[in-house]
């Protein structure tokens, strides 16, 4: 049993955690939810004794009645990895790329138990089998780059449970994974908790994930736990206004836009193929060819909102790059408003001006050295900057709910949600007919996401813009699109009206995606 | 640490100040020899003493700073003016034939031992400050090309570059508007380090008689000339030697300090 009592942390005098009480019972899963900056990860780091320099702690972290906060670093090293394990969000960087997976798992055992290498490797084999990476398909000699994201996360889990810890902390363990992989990893975690009797602290911003797996949920806001309780009870009724807000936002579906799509397609993709040459297998062999996009055809009508879903590696991103004219197609044709899209500089500005994009990462989407007015007006490069460009910037900013007086600020002065609004303002400013939204709300907290989705719906109503909405979050796609395309292995395997495809998926891929989608049970949200 | 920045700036600033003042004033006229006064130790009249021709060493050192700084500055300028555009072009065409041509050309220059080639150039075209500048400058080109390319590649993967492409901007325009300003820190730091290496190279070339020619004073040649009297009047050799050490050390500390001060990640850690 691990518990925190009145756990408080200040960093350079700034309070980041205040009186956090958590009881992490063996065999139980505790979900810790909250928005970014609410102190979820800080709680995990405080338990692990990995707080940044300059932090002061108060209260207690009790493991078998011993306060971990009092232990010297040498003893904490012995506890970390053996009594408390941790897995992180990004499986791509959590493993050492120069060490094979067997040695990485064995290393933990060799450090903590002084186990000889042979014996440690045997144990590592057992642990990797336990997380579903079985011999002979996954020999110990594999390197991380030979594994997919989901498989790497399994290795990270094997590492964390190698010593059968009392507590496993999982910090957003599935956020970087697609829905089907997410479902598998969550299954694995649930299974491990049940069979090994450890307790799991699952940190996530996704309430649907928590609903499906946690026994107990704690909601954090500004470094404090504002509400906690048994999962079902908490979902059925919240007492704290913030929790109520948060739960409402996660269920939020923007008002349907009564779109009047006419029959002229704004975007028309015909038999698109994009091939990549892979490295030769031997010196004189021909290059093997990867068909990332394999004969894709679809139309988007004027003013229509179309979703594009699929697992990672299904070819979504490649298709989008071709649609945006950033990469050429190998075969086939993409027409924008009747004119063929050619990649690169040969694309006439007037044509490019009909299409804009919003990208996923609110932090990487803006040049940190430019001011907002210059950033937002960048697409005027396509149309020539009108004399009233400052008014147009002000208009675009107020369209997305940003005070126009903020236009002389730099981007680091804005929050993630504001940045994504600015990205939309940038896309809107030249009044395109189509906006490609590439995972545009995936990085946002639920409440901010609800606002941005509402904004997108409003803009569609007022400006009659068509959307191509790429997302791995099927719930969001269901809320904002009229039609959905399901992609797998470079092909569109199913398409149709969103509600129809999602309620009665015909293709196995769609069925798999729908099944894997974490959902809050309908009856829980009745109240 | 802030200290490296302060000490570095102070040392480098002293050299620049000496050079700047020498344009309007030096304690003595160094074209006037006074052999009667030769090899005097430091005194109230000659703060740093006199050399074997009786010239005031403080005046010589001030004028020498001018030569060193001018040569190193122009050489770094050549490196930046040619190397940075080459690096930006290579990064914008990553994996293309242009990238290959530029980077393999870089490798070719890197493959030659720089000081030996500099000696070759000055030996072939005659020893002079101009030829020293060219010789040192050529070897700065691949350094800046590589640093620029390495800094530019990660910038090219960011979404704001994609946004600029969607706004119809071409590669060269994106390179100038977005990429260059975002790798400027890197170039400033590299520039400081190359500057110190330039001073060292100039001193080396002058020492073997291939740099600035008499009567233009130079720290390297002062060292070479003082060699014969080093037991008789050690200060004549020690002083120009100290000047070189102090300036190079100062510039290196300045480069390190700037790198720390300009790196936003380190700033977060300090906060």
Report on the structure:
The complex is a heterodimer of chains A (527) and B (271). Chain A is α/β, with parallel strands linked by helices. Among the domains of chain A are: 2-93 and 166-251, P-loop containing nucleotide triphosphate hydrolases (Rossmann fold), CATH 3.40.50.300; 305-317 and 347-517, 3-Layer(aba) Sandwich (Rossmann fold), CATH 3.40.50.300. Chain A has helices at 40-48, 73-79, 101-113, 117-130, 149-161, 179-196, 207-213, 231-236, 241-251, 316-323, 349-352, 372-376, 380-383, 389-399, 416-428, 446-463, 474-480, 498-503, 508-516, and strands spanning 2-11, 14-24, 29-33, 55-63, 66-67, 84-87, 167-171, 199-204, 216-221, 224-230, 265-277, 289-301, 305-309, 331-336, 339-340, 355-358, 434-438, 466-470, 483-488, 491-497. In chain A, strand 4 (55-63) and strand 5 form a beta hairpin. In chain A, helix 6 crosses helix 19 (508-516) and helix 15 packs parallel to helix 16 (446-463). Chain B is mainly α. Chain B has a single domain, classed as Orthogonal Bundle (MetI-like fold). Chain B has helices at 2-22, 57-92, 97-111, 114-125, 129-156, 159-166, 171-207, 219-226, 235-262, 264-270. Chain B is elongated, with a radius of gyration of 22 Å. Classes of the chains: A alpha/beta (527), B mainly alpha (271). Chains A and B meet through strand 16 of A and helix 6 and helix 7 of B.
Low-confidence stretches of chain B: 267-271
How many strands in all of chain B? 0
- The number of helical runs of chain A is 19
Topology-level CATH name of the domain at 305-317 and 347-517 in chain A = Rossmann fold
Query: Main β-sheet of chain B, in a few words?
Result: none
Query: How confident is the prediction overall: mean pLDDT of chain A?
Result: 87
Chain pair sharing the greatest interface? A-B, 26 and 17 residues
Task: Supply the CATH class of chain B.
Answer: Mainly Alpha
**Low-pLDDT regions of chain A:** none
The assigned structural class of chain A equals alpha/beta
Radius of gyration of chain B: 22 Å
CATH class of the domain at 305-317 and 347-517 in chain A: Alpha Beta
Bin the helical content of chain A. Answer: 25-40%
CATH-level-4 superfamily name of the domain at 305-317 and 347-517 in chain A? P-loop containing nucleotide triphosphate hydrolases
CATH architecture classification name of chain B: Orthogonal Bundle
CATH topology of chain B: MetI-like fold
């Amino acid at each position: 049993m691990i518990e925190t009592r009145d756990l408080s942390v200040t960093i350079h005098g700034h309070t980041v955690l205040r009186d956090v009480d958590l009881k992490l019972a063996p065999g139980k899963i505790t979900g810790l939810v909250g928005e970014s900056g609410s102190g979820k990860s800080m709680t995990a780091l405080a338990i692990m004794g990995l707080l940044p320099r300059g932090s002061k702690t108060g209260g207690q972290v009790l493991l078998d009645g011993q306060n971990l906060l009092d232990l010297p670093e040498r003893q904490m090293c012995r506890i970390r990895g053996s009594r408390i394990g941790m897995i992180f969000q990004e499986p791509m960087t959590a493993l050492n790329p120069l060490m094979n997976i067997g040695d990485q798992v064995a290393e933990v055992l060799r450090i903590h138990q002084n186990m000889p290498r042979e014996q440690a490797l045997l144990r590592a084999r057992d642990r990797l089998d336990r997380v579903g990476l079985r011999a002979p398909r996954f020999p110990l000699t594999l390197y991380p780059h030979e594994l997919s994201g989901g498989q790497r996360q399994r290795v990270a889990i094997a590492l964390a449970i190698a010593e059968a810890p009392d507590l496993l902390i999982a910090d957003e363990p599935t956020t970087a994974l697609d829905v089907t992989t997410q479902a598998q990893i969550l299954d694995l975690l649930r299974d491990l908790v049940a069979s090994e009797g450890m307790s799991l602290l699952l940190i996530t911003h996704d309430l649907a994930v928590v609903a499906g797996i946690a026994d107990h949920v704690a909601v954090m806001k500004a470094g404090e736990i504002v509400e906690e309780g048994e999962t079902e009870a908490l979902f059925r009724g919240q007492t704290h206004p913030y929790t109520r807000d948060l739960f409402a936002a996660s269920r939020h579906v923007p008002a349907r836009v009564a779109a009047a799509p006419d029959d002229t397609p704004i975007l028309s993709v015909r038999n698109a193929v994009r091939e990549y040459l892979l490295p030769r297998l031997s010196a004189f062999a021909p290059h093997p060819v990867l068909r990332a996009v394999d004969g894709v055809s679809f139309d988007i009508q004027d003013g229509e909102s179309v979703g594009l879903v699929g697992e990672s590696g299904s070819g979504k991103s490649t298709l989008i790059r071709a649609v945006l004219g950033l990469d050429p197609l190998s075969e086939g044709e993409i027409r924008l408003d009747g004119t063929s899209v050619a990649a690169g500089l040969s694309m006439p500005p007037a044509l490019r001006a009909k299409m804009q994009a919003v990208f996923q990462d609110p932090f990487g989407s803006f040049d940190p050295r430019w001011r907002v007015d210059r950033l937002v007006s960048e697409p005027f490069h396509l149309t020539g900057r009108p004399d009233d460009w400052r008014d147009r910037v002000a208009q675009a900013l107020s369209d997305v709910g940003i005070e126009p007086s903020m236009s002389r600020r730099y981007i680091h002065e804005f929050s993630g949600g504001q940045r994504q609004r600015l990205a939309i303002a940038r896309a809107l400013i030249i009044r395109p007919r189509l906006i490609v939204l590439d995972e545009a709300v995936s990085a946002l907290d639920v409440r901010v996401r609800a606002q941005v989705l509402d904004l997108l719906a409003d803009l569609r109503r007022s400006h009659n813009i068509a959307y191509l909405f790429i997302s791995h979050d099927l719930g969001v796609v269901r809320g904002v699109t009229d039609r959905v395309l399901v992609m797998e292995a470079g092909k569109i395997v199913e398409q149709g009206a969103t509600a129809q495809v999602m309620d009665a998926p015909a293709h196995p891929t769609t069925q798999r995606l729908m099944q894997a989608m974490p959902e809050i049970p309908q009856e829980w949200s009745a109240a | 640490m802030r200290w490296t920045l302060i000490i570095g700036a102070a040392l480098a600033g002293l050299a620049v100040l000496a050079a700047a003042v020498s344009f309007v004033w030096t304690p003595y006229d160094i074209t006037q020899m006074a052999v009667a006064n030769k090899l005097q130790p430091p005194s109230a009249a000659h703060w740093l003493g006199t050399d074997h021709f009786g010239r005031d060493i403080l005046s010589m050192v001030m004028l020498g700073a001018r030569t060193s700084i001018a040569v190193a500055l122009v050489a770094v300028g050549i490196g930046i003016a040619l190397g940075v555009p080459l690096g930006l072009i290579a990064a914008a065409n990553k994996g293309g034939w242009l990238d290959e041509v530029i980077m393999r050309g870089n490798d070719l220059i890197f493959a030659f031992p720089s000081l030996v080639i500099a000696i070759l150039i000055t030996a072939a075209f005659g020893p002079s400050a101009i030829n020293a500048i060219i010789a040192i400058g050529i070897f700065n080109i691949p350094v800046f090309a590589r640093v620029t390319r390495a800094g530019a590649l990660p910038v090219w993967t960011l979404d704001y570059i994609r946004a600029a492409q969607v706004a119809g901007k071409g590669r060269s325009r994106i390179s100038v508007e977005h990429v260059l300003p975002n790798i400027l820190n890197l170039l400033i730091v590299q520039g400081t380090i190359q500057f110190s290496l330039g001073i060292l190279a100039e001193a080396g070339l002058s020492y073997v008689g291939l740099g600035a020619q008499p009567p233009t004073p130079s720290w390297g040649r002062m060292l070479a000339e003082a060699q014969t009297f080093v037991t008789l009047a050690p200060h004549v050799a020690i002083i120009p030697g100290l000047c070189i050490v102090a300036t190079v050390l100062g510039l290196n500390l300045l480069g390190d300090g700037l790198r720390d001060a300009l790196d936003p990640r380190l700033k977060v850690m300090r906060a």
